[in-house]
Amino acid sequence: MDETIDSPTNAHEYSVSEISIALKRTVEDAFGNVRVRGEISGYRGPHSSGHAYFSLKDDRSRIEAVIWKGTFGKLKFRPEEGMEVIATGKLTTYPGSSKYQIVIDNLEPAGAGALMALLEERKRRLQAEGLFDAGRKQLLPYLPRVIGVVTSPTGAVIRDIIHRISDRFPLHVVVWPVRVQGETTGAEVANAVAGFNALPEDGDIARPDVIIVARGGGSLEDLWGFNDEAVVRAVAASDIPVISAVGHETDWTLIDLAADVRAPTPTGAAEMAVPVKVELEATLTSLGARLRTCTSRHLDRQRQAVRSAARALPSPDQLFALPRRRFDDIAGRLDRAAVAAAERRRARLSAIRLSPATLERGIAEARRHLARNAAQLPRCADAYFERRRLRLQTAAARLTIEPFARRNAEARRGLERAALRLPRVVDALLAERRKRLAQATRLVDSLSVKSVLDRGFALVEHEDGTLAKRAAEISDGMRLALRFADGTRSAVAGDGSAGGEAPRQRPKSGTAKPPSGQGDLF
User: Fold this and answer.
1) DSSP state of 169
2) Residue 173: which of 198, 145, 154, 214 has the closest Cα?
3) 256-291: per-residue pLDDT in tens?
4) Global pTM?
């Protein structure tokens, strides 16, 4: 018996893989090279494999996108969330999930307007953080010993800077090589500025006194790496003064706003960093000559002033004539006064006669004086101690316990009066608190959900217990719960076609179903 089942049609049978491969080939042949404009959505940076996965969307549609690792490293711009771009690549499908996606070969912003909008938004955000404030700016050293330059080592910019510095004031220049265009520009420049700041003062590599970040002119896309947020933060956090010399005078980037000084060109940055040695030498020579001339003139003026003052002063003989005459007079009188004083002292000594009888009379007089004082001493001591005793008795009479007893009695009576008033005060306070509690209870009851449900209202809830607040949240066939004051009933949302009829009661078990087209609430 033939077990083959005849197909009702002549259509060929395909396997799922055959269909997926056929669709993949068809899509790739029809859309081998396309340009898609859209907004980046769901971008989280490169995957651990190096590939980047995200979506492009507009106001109505969405398409998956992927950038392979090899292509991602060659992009001029790093994709950012919400950025409007133009992606060039080919459409393909992924059989594993039956989805189509665009494999991007090139990515560019959707016009300069989009770049400027992104730049202005970044500028406002960084300015709000205070990274561009004038108070953060540092003064450039007048005569630096070492200059650090962050630029490409193979371009004409570094040669122009070194040549200009050599012409003006030859000194040591340290170059930190970086890429000045491309995807890695921002990270390399930020690392260079941070690296210069991390150099020790006495290390093998001289730490620069000023940093020049330089690049030649170019379009907005070419200079985009110097608008990187990492570069702006590194320049703003630099302890070494930074001169920004990116592009021509008409070009501007965010690093110009964060740097301490902005130069119109790289050559102008070299001129700002160092003075002209020849001019300094000429200035020093001129100042030295002026100093010598001024010193000579000052000394001449002082010498002339001394001569003029000397002519107005009297001679030494005239100055010392009068004092010398007075000295001679006093010296003559001094000799005579000394002789007369000696004679007076001799006469007084001659008039004094010392004898034993004179000494005995003096001693007897001193003994009588001491005896009188000794006889008066007991009476004086008794009188002194009596006065002290009277003073102590007076003080003891004043120190009694009666004032303290009166104060304690008054305090006890005050406490008794307060104890009598306390029950009335407590009762009044409790009554006031009970009244306020009753008012609050009535207010809570009037505002509670239960009181609203008691007035005939009902709450509509989803199956998960959340409250349905809008009709737009409920679709036909959705199971709901109606909460009344006395319980909860389940319901199924209908399409509302019988809105003009009176609501029917829920049919009891075993009753006939409502006619077709008529919704049933329960």
Assistant:
1) -
2) 145
3) 999 999 999 999 999 999 998 888 889 999 999 999
4) 0.44
